[in-house]
Design brief:
- The complex is a heterodimer of chains A (118) and B (110).
- Chain A has no helices and 11 strands.
- With 118 residues, chain A is mainly beta.
- In chain A, the strands form 2 sheets. In chain A, strands 2, 4, 5, 6, 9, 10 and 11 form a 7-stranded mixed β-sheet that branches. Chain A has a 4-stranded antiparallel β-sheet with strand order 1-3-8-7, with no helix packed on it.
- In chain A, strand 7 and strand 8 form a beta hairpin.
- The radius of gyration of chain A is 13 Å and the shape is globular.
- The model of chain B has no long low-confidence stretch (mean pLDDT 96).
- Chain B has 110 residues and is mainly beta.
- Chain B is globular, with a radius of gyration of 13 Å.
- Chain B starts with 8 loop residues before the first strand and ends with a strand.
- Classes of the chains: A mainly beta (118), B mainly beta (110).
- At the A-B interface, strand 5 and strand 10 of A face strand 3, strand 7 and strand 8 of B.
Chain lengths: 118, 110
């Protein structure tokens, strides 16, 4: 059974940093591109970032470019999102998701809440 | 990276059909066949319902169908059931290994 479990969320002050993790199991993690998607309270889904199966290529939404860094450890089946210079508007539930062979997100984690507030 | 445009809400009675449009541009929806749709119940993670514009993954009822014309994709749900009440999001590949979601549509089953 495919499982994605996010962790690392919490309360952080504006300008602070946080590192999210996503532990994957039930599939060959190193064979799949992975994504981060976020959802602010009461709002819609917003794509954040994508990383190649071997970590060699990454892409970001304009709103987080230069502040967020996606990475992965295929030996530990774990996806990461390093978030720096956090702003109030980054407050959201952050989901990790697996990409099928095409740009479709077929499995999602349950999400981890990040709150940026003083 | 502007969000795709969806109506905020749609509604229908049990047994009826509803269609949710998703309008993008020639740089996303109009350019690729990589349009997908996701269903999200309150407090739950999204679940993918349609991929590649009109393909249904196993386990998704055939009451759910997708289509695309030009820069607008659509999700049609026929034979509405109470459990279909949820938020629905379209998503398109937007080039350069990026994705863009729609703002979401709340489906109410009357």
């Amino acid at each position: 059974e495919v499982q994605l479990v996010e962790s690392g969320g919490g309360l952080v002050q504006p300008g602070g940093s946080l590192r999210l993790s996503c532990a994957a199991s039930g599939f060959t993690f190193s064979s799949y591109w992975m994504h981060w998607v976020r959802q602010a309270p009461g709002e819609g889904l917003v794509w954040v970032s994508r990383i190649h199966s071997d970590g060699s290529s990454t892409s970001y939404a304009d709103s987080v470019k230069g502040r967020f860094t996606v990475s992965r450890d295929n030996a530990k089946n774990t996806l990461f999102l390093q978030m720096n210079s956090l702003r109030a508007e980054d407050t959201a539930v952050y989901y990790c998701a697996r990409e099928r062979v095409d740009p479709t997100l077929d499995y999602w984690g349950q999400g981890t809440l990040v709150t940026v507030s003083s | 990276q502007s969000a795709l445009t969806q109506p905020r809400s749609v509604s229908g009675s049990p047994g009826q059909s509803v269609t949710i449009p998703c309008t993008g541009t020639s740089n996303d929806v109009g350019a690729y066949r990589y349009v997908s749709w996701y269903q999200q119940h309150p407090g739950k993670a999204p679940k993918f319902m349609i991929y590649d514009v009109s393909e249904r993954p196993s386990g998704v009822p055939d009451r759910f169908s997708g289509s695309k014309s030009g820069n607008t994709a659509s999700l049609t749900i026929s034979g509405l059931q109470a459990e279909d009440e949820a938020d629905y999001y379209c998503c398109s590949y937007a080039g350069s290994y990026t994705l863009v979601f729609g703002g979401g549509t709340r489906l109410t089953v009357l």
